[in-house]
Amino acid sequence: MDGVSIYDRESELKSFDETKAGVKGLVDAGITEIPRFFIQPPGDAVSAPPHYLQIPIIDLSCIRSHRRHIVEQVKRAAESFGFFQLVNHGIPQDVLDEMLRAVRRFHEAAPEEKSAYYSREAGRKVSYTSNFDLYQAPVANWRDSVFCVMAPDPPPPEELPIACRDVALEYSGQIERLGIVVFELLAEAMGLTSNHLIEMECARGHALVMNYYPPCPQPQLTLGTSKHSDPDFLTILLQDHIGGLQVLHQHYWIDVPPLPGALVVNIGDLLQLILNDKLRSIEHRVLANNVGPRVSVACFFTMHLYPTTQIYGPIRELLSDQCPPVYRQIHLQEYISHYESKGLDGRPALDYFKL
Q1: Domain Fe2OG dioxygenase, which positions (predicted)?
Q2: Whether the predicted model's global pTM rises above the 0.85 cut
């Protein structure tokens, strides 16, 4: 074996993790080739989608006077794409802009300032890490993240990084109110009472995930985020101007173009489960880039970090002899444990819970 190089992936992952500097640390070190554990296997070639396949845009400015029309728009968008963009949603532009600036402030701070938050400890309300599934997923993603549980029991303000503390608290309150509106619209779109999903505690908890995608020297070899669906009821995403988010639809990867002031909404796995596949949690990904950094803030509506006796299964009102339950009843922690144990491996997490 003399002269043959043996690749010790586990050792390389450990060495990367122990720097507590994330992908940003690799870029700051001036690398010109990405480490092997970031290299994606060849994927299925997907040609450019037809021009008519575009993520729907829904204007909430007339929600009071034209609610029924907006409910119908939400229904069509959620059923056809599982994704849509909201404009005129009521969150001030200066709050959105400051939220994005705060994410950059944290991730571009000195390594010693960030490392105090670096942790893989389960259950922490505030943590900074690179790839939550670094040791589980087959390939690492070109992304660093700050994870903050914000509701129903937010951490003391002093536990939040000072770089994003004030605006994270403000944005959290604003996004929670918007989330309630979206859950009401979705419930009505499914023929349920407007507060049905709220009473199921779908909007009671949420976490903010502040993502930072540094410019990559070899973006064609890796991804910012691998193909996956979201482990929650609903995601509301704030993205900057760089772009790179893509949704898998009819075997095409469709771009979700950044729109000033817009927020991206997508159905999560848990909502698909309780709606018995009437809406679907669609797979999506983020491309790596060499022009960034790209910054985004995902709000995940879920209660999985809180002890709850709530059991989730297909909603009774949506079932019939012609539409029997697709999934068994589960506790949230059972779902999250399964999702985190497998990481972003390209396989749908919901398949495990089918009857």
Answers
A1: 204-304
A2: yes
